């Protein structure tokens, strides 16, 4: 099963590494790594270029996570699949390996998060993985992802801090996984992703504690890009 998990992770990484934020900004003549927060995430793209490009990047980043988490489900089955390597001519003495779609989906999502945050196409620079993670969780844990979306929207509307909303939404995922009685694997995966998101927001955490974090404000239509 390790072979398939690694394969799912590699495919997930390559999908996640697609630098949509960078490409959308570049199409507008902007180097997204040199403006705003210097992040290729949807939030920075929206701050710099406006609602349209920002929303486009958000949707594309969500799709990266969704596809990375679901391709195994679509390609194999909704429960489990058994592989007989001997049938492929491999000298394994008929070894049979079973891999559940959840395990493959998790491997794909982890790969996508790493790819998005450390893209091989942009010198291993990237975003914080929130939108990509959300896309994956809507496939693997739809109920938990819905709770996370409600938490994000509530915190954002109350505070206008995207970073705080993202971190609290991430923290809600392992709690939702536990509350909805998902498997231990899902709970552990959700906890690891939540920790990853918080670590990626460590600079935002410092600014929040210091009271210097920027609240999200819509850019003026005539405001020049700097």
Q: What does this 3D model show about the protein?
A:
Strands 1-2 form a two-stranded antiparallel sheet. The radius of gyration is 19 Å and the shape is globular. It has one domain. By secondary structure, it is mainly alpha-helical. The chain has helices at 2-16, 20-27, 42-49, 51-75, 101-117, 130-140, 142-159, 162-179, 184-200, 202-210, and strands at 80-84, 96-100. It is built from 10 helices and 2 strands, in the order H-H-H-H-E-E-H-H-H-H-H-H. Helix 1 (2-16) runs antiparallel to helix 4 and helix 5 (101-117) runs parallel beside helix 9 (184-200).
Sketch the major β-sheet. 2 strands, antiparallel
Q: Overall mean pLDDT score?
A: 85
Helix content percent band: 55-70%
| Rg value | 19 Å
Strand content: under 5%
Distance between the termini: 49 Å
Order of H and E elements: HHHHEEHHHHHH
Kindly give the count of domains: 1
Global geometry: globular
* Count of strand segments: 2
Identify low-pLDDT runs.
Answer: 78-99, 222-226
Judged by helices, strands and strand pairing, the structural class is mainly alpha
């Amino acid at each position: 099963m390790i072979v398939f998990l690694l394969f799912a992770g590699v495919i997930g990484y390559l999908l996640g590494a697609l630098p949509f934020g960078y490409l959308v900004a570049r199409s507008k003549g902007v180097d997204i790594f040199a403006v705003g927060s210097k992040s290729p995430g949807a939030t920075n793209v929206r701050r710099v270029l406006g609602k349209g490009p920002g929303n486009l990047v958000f949707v594309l980043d969500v799709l990266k996570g969704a596809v990375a988490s679901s391709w195994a489900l679509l390609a194999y089955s909704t429960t489990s699949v058994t592989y007989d390597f001997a049938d492929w001519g491999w000298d394994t003495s008929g070894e049979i390996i079973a891999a559940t779609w959840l395990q493959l989906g998790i491997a794909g999502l982890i790969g996508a998060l790493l790819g998005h945050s450390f893209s091989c196409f942009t010198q291993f620079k990237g975003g914080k993985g929130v939108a990509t993670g959300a896309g994956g969780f809507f496939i693997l844990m739809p109920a938990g992802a819905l709770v996370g979306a409600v938490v994000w929207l509530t915190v954002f509307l109350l505070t206008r801090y995207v970073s705080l909303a993202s971190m609290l939404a991430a923290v809600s995922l392992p709690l939702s996984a536990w509350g909805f009685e998902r498997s231990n694997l899902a709970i552990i995966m959700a906890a690891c992703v939540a920790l990853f998101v918080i670590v990626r927001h460590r600079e935002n955490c410092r600014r929040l504690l210091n009271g210097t974090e920027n609240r999200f404000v819509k850019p003026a239509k005539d405001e020049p890009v700097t």
